[in-house]
Amino acid sequence: YITEENVKILFSNMEDILDVHNDFLTALEYCLHPEPHSQHELGDVFLKFKEKFIVYEEYCSNHEKALRLLMELNKIPAVRAFLSSCMLLGGRKTTDIPLEGYLLTPIQRICKYPLLLKELAKRTPTKHPDYQAVLNALQAMKTVCTNINETKRQMEKLEALEQLQSHIEGWEGSNLTDISTQLLLQGNLLKISAGN
Question: Where's the DH domain (predicted)?
């Protein structure tokens, strides 16, 4: 029922995200360790990782497709039972949080960073050595989130083109996504024939 391709669609590049966050956590823990640091410089840690957070673009762009697939898979009783048993095996006493909730977690995490940095900037004294880095990190993380949203919008446009092409009977031309990147106008078309 659940193919390797389905797993790739559902979980996308989650392992890459995990790798980035393991490194990020290590860097944060090192920064917060009392020795050799007398000043915690969290802004610098975010700035060092801003390029690595690009890993979220693929995951976020794929999220809607993953949810649609999961809805289809959940219609199969054996798959639904399997997913429930996986949650129970994972130590959950209940299945209150479905897989959809867990698939949303990475998106929520990356979107929280600008909010956390904004709060950190409010609470960091302007004379603190990390103050400017926190402000720079805030701006950098806002940019990361904006880029992720833009990539996601672009993927949605391409999926709309693919969906449109799949509804055209007898399509023999090139794939629309090969020759165009966005849908300019969508509506109903009425063909009027002379005669018959």
Answer: 1-151
